[in-house]
Specification:
By secondary structure, the protein is α+β, with helices and mostly antiparallel strands. It is built from seven helices and 17 strands. A hairpin with a 5-residue loop joins strand 14 (258-259) and strand 15 (265-273).
Length: 341
């Protein structure tokens, strides 16, 4: 169970790193990971498929079946009844290959103990202008091991040990050509098919809600403003701080685009400025769900004085009520204690 949780965390981390701010596009990506802990026996394997950042299929060593994670993928069975069996057999083959790879790498590195991981990330993208892209890379123990250069039809080895595998794969007749064809054609065809299945959710647009929160730093009097964009779909969004209408990167920090529970996304970016120049800055947002770019101006941070005064007044009123009740009860007790004439 612990290995399964770690596997999913690794894949979620990779998926979040893949999220970015940018031009509108569609993508299909697979992230597979095998984690070996000698104390646990065989490696635990997890493979997750994403379309536009949404998990749509998953396989793991426990179920040993490729399973749907969204309702729209069920449409594939009508056109391809053997789809789930074929995908399951493919993943079982990859799982076995990953097991052998981990054993080979442990021998190469002369490692007999400890936890080790073997990861595979591949996929393709279709940009709004029709251009296509694809990637394919492997990692060992969290570091890049091999990356496929589909333009040069060769594998790139960033570490000396990976050169053994690089030479072996480059020498397989037609292997690199087949991968290039898959990334540029077959992968794109499957992406377009999945988009047609899930068009009601994957091709919809939800405009972002933009809010700004601000505070003044006590130490130096500078102001920090956080621009939050929430509830947007698709994931791609262009959000930036501008000064005098120009993109301003200085003193700007941003978080990754992250998913919401309802399938939409959220992100944030902050900036620290001199309050005297507040009027020069705006949060600029562009998204497919917006008819035109949105610019939100900064406002003066709300003062806490009003809140403090309100609390003091409320406290005085409460004190007055308490004192009044005390006097009332005191006089009532005196009246009851007085002798009758």
């Amino acid at each position: 169970m612990a290995l399964r949780s770690l596997s999913l965390l690794v894949l979620v981390g990779v998926a979040l790193r893949e999220s970015c701010l940018g031009a509108s596009s569609h993508s299909m990506k697979y992230f597979s990971s095998s984690i070996l802990d000698p104390s646990q026996g065989l490696p635990h394997y997890v493979s997750v498929g994403y379309v536009d950042g949404q998990v749509f299929v998953q396989y793991d060593s426990n179920s040993r079946r490729m399973e749907p994670r969204v309702s729209w993928i069920g449409k594939v069975e009508k056109e391809d009844p053997q789809y789930w069996d074929r995908e399951t057999q493919r993943e079982r083959g990859i799982e076995e290959t990953f097991r052998r790879n981990l054993e080979i790498l442990r021998l190469h590195y002369n490692q007999s103990e400890g936890l080790h991981t073997w990861q595979w990330m591949y996929g393709c993208e279709l940009q709004a202008d029709g251009s296509k892209g694809g990637f394919d890379q492997f990692g060992y123990d969290g570091r890049t091991f091999l990356t496929f250069d589909k333009e040069r039809l060769t594998w790139v080895a960033p570490v000396p040990l990976a050169q053994i595998t690089q030479r072996k794969w480059d020498a397989i007749p037609g292997y690199n050509q087949r991968w290039k064809a898959y990334l540029e054609k077959e992968c794109i065809e499957w992406l377009q098919k999945y988009l047609s299945y899930g068009n009601e959710t994957l091709l919809r647009t939800e405009p972002p809600e933009v809010t700004i929160s601000s505070k003044t730093e006590v130490e130096d009097g500078m102001e920090t403003h956080v621009c939050r964009v929430d509830g947007f779909y698709p994931r791609e969004i262009d959000a930036s701080w501008t000064r005098d209408g120009e993109v301003w990167l200085q003193d700007t920090f941003r978080g990754s685009v992250a998913p919401n529970a309802d399938g939409t996304f959220h992100a944030w970016l902050s900036i620290q400025i001199d309050p005297k120049e507040r009027g020069r800055y705006q949060c600029h947002v562009e998204h497919d769900g917006l008819e035109e770019p949105l610019d939100v101006a900064l406002e003066e941070p709300k003062s806490n004085v009003g809140i403090i005064i309100g609390c003091v007044v409320a406290g005085l009123v409460l004190l007055g009520v308490i004192v009044g009740i005390w006097f009332f009860k005191r006089h009532q007790d005196d009246y009851r204690a007085a002798p009758s004439e």
